[in-house]
Amino acid sequence: INKVSSQDIKNTPIELAKKLIDMVEFDTTDILYEPFKGTGNFYNNFPKENKKIWDEILDNKDFFKSKKTCDWVITNPPWSKITTILDKLVNICNKGFALLVHSMTLSPTRIKFINDNGYSIINYHMVRVKGWFSHAVFIICKKMPNNSIITYDPVVYKMPDSENDEYELKQKKYQSDYYKKKNHKL
After folding, report:
1. I want to staple 140 with a disulfide (CB 3.0 to 4.6 A). Which of 19, 82, 123, 135 is the partner?
2. Taking a C-beta distance cutoff of 8 angstroms, is the pair 93, 71 a contact?
């Protein structure tokens, strides 16, 4: 878990971090936690009147080993570890958490997990950062069951047979072509 991937180190632009912090409704008495501090673009812009705490694996302060609790986590977490992160957040946050994540991070399984643990996604804000993979979303999850703005269908539907057959043929051809090219490069 505590290994660092270069793909997981994406510092949030300062102006974006400020804007996202302003979207989270917290009290001045709330403890704010930035568990993936990086260069501090969220942490350094938390309001001065709030108590703030942080972790950063590159500074030998590992969130996954930490025993810290808080009112709110506000962060841009390593996207590849989101399942483990969510599992911990629902146990350490008294009021909520706000995460800047890849848009494909929010699967029905993860949304259900958030909801089943007493949190609701109350905001889903899309952003783009040049150089990041595709677009990201800032989700605000508040401890308040059954009030999520996102719904999902747990059923996985099958394509019509004619489209499915065509899809499978294209997939087989793609894989065959891919491995032929790869073997030529070896």
Report:
1. 123
2. yes
Environment class of residue 36 by beta-carbon count within 10 Å: exposed (0-12), middle (13-18) or buried (19+)? buried
Residue of 54, 59, 61 lying closest to 75 (CA atoms): 54
Distance in angstroms (rounded) separating the CA atoms of residues 186 and 176: 16
Largest Cα separation within the chain, whole Å, is 62
121-155: pLDDT as tens digits: 999 999 998 887 778 999 999 999 889 999 888 88
Cβ pair 94, 70 in contact under 8 A: yes
Q: Tell me phi and psi for residue 10, to 5 degrees.
A: -130, 100
Strands (DSSP E) found in 35-182: 51-54, 70-75, 93-102, 119-127, 136-143
Residue 55 corresponds to which tokens in the numbers above? 């972790």
- C-alpha 173/C-alpha 186 separation (Å) is 20
Structure tokens at 129: 């950062």
As to burial, measured by CB atoms within 10 angstroms (0-12 exposed, 13-18 middle, 19+ buried), residue 174 is exposed
Going by C-alpha positions, the residue among 120, 82, 122 that lies closest to residue 100 is 82
